[in-house]
Amino acid sequence: MKILIATDTYPRQLNGVSRVLEKTIKELSVRGHEVKLLSVDDFRYFPWPGYHEIRIAVFPGSRLARIVDDFSPDTIHIMTEGPIGISMRRYCKKRGLRYTTSWLSRLSEYVSLRYKIPVSWLHRLLVDFHQSAAQTMVTTTSMEAEARDLGISRIVRWRRGVELDKFHPVETEIFSGLPRPIMLNVGRIAVEKSLDRFLSINIPGTKVVVGDGPQLNALKKEFPEVIYLGVKEGEALTECYAGADVFVFPSLTDTFGLVNLEALACGLPIAAYPVTGPRDIIGDAPVGAMDEDLGVAIKKALTFKSEDCIARARTFCWDLATEDFLENLVPVNVEHPVLAEY
Fold first, then answer.
1. pTM above 0.85?
2. What pLDDT digit, counting tens, does each position of 78-132 carry?
3. What is the CATH topology of the domain spanning 182-313?
4. Among 320, 323, 317, which Cα is nearest to 33's?
5. Domain made up of 2-161+318-341: CATH architecture
6. ∠ CA(229), CA(233), CA(234), 5° rounding?
7. Residue 78, φ and ψ in degrees, nearest 5
């Protein structure tokens, strides 16, 4: 079938949503589906002030309509709540088309944190955005509960996976000679990731940060003893995971955190706060520690075994995640036969 996915996160952006998109589109294509990704690359855009990694589409409405009309999709999914997502939602409502959405990030909290807008106002906009969807996909049981508490109905699950062919234990000397334990964080370096909570902990060993973002220079000045490796991909990233002793995930706002699965797949235990994301990934398995005191969580996580971490990662499968996505989709109109045939 012809699947249209609308997103404000462009494909080359280094974040969880773009990585989910990349893997999902690949899996859908293998199954024979034709996928059209409608992203900021299709429109004029400007970089968000103070956060140039984020691009904002400028008045995408008219061009968006032409692209969708030309593609004539069997089903439409809206990934994000930005200008493209809003325009796609408006297009569907104007034409009486059914569609699904995803709630994959705490955009309300991010905007509130940066611009001091009351989060309750932003939550009302969030609920309004998703309420008209036939179904809204969330990643975990925790996010499902939060969505229902906010007032979003018609919630379905869209699980996550990890690429075990890319992320697995390897022999590496990447951190040879550095004081142990090696405490690693991988991801976007931005204020909402709460990296200062991790980097300010007084604990023996070496802290390593992999990634880039608007807070990088400020953290380098405040915590010059930390090793900053920049963006790493492919084998270089796998070596970082495999060469470390514990993965530290200090974010309080992430809805999942794919980097946690990548770390586990490389045999690396997780230390985190007891929040959505780590709580769902770790569960009751002896693969990570969660505590309001992140230093306590780090020390406890160091006691877990690599083989248990790898076993836990293998329970997260992209094949099942893709089946979730396909089952959650709806035909653009009630009479449309394609999804029923699928």
1. yes
2. 999 989 999 999 999 999 999 999 998 877 776 666 667 787 888 899 999 999 9
3. Rossmann fold (3.40.50)
4. 323
5. 3-Layer(aba) Sandwich (3.40)
6. 135
7. -105, 115
